[in-house]
Amino acid sequence: MEINPIRTEEDYEKAMSRIEELWGIPPDSPDSDELEILLALTGAFEKKHHRIESPDPVTLIEYRMEQMGLSQEEIRHFMESRKRVPEIISRESGLNIDVIKSFGDIPFEAFAGDHT
Length: 116
Description:
This protein has 116 residues and is mostly helical. The protein is 54% helix and 0% strand.
């Protein structure tokens, strides 16, 4: 087992190829330590170089509405702030706790991310 730091995209691709080779090995396998180390290294590289930003809250709501097959009119039936739906979707008005609670299946943390 020879493991090197991941500094470039080429290093990353090599590590990912090796992970694919090792994927699914038993946890007590001799190569399981190598897999664990490579996962940690690639995870750190991804966090630094391939970061995926959280969507803004309205985009998150629009996505959930699409998943549920709901129009703005249909969503009014279960939202506390029914009158504000168009303003929220058009970003003319902000979210409040009642609107967030209406989407109980979306974790609160998703609305509280850094959206600057």
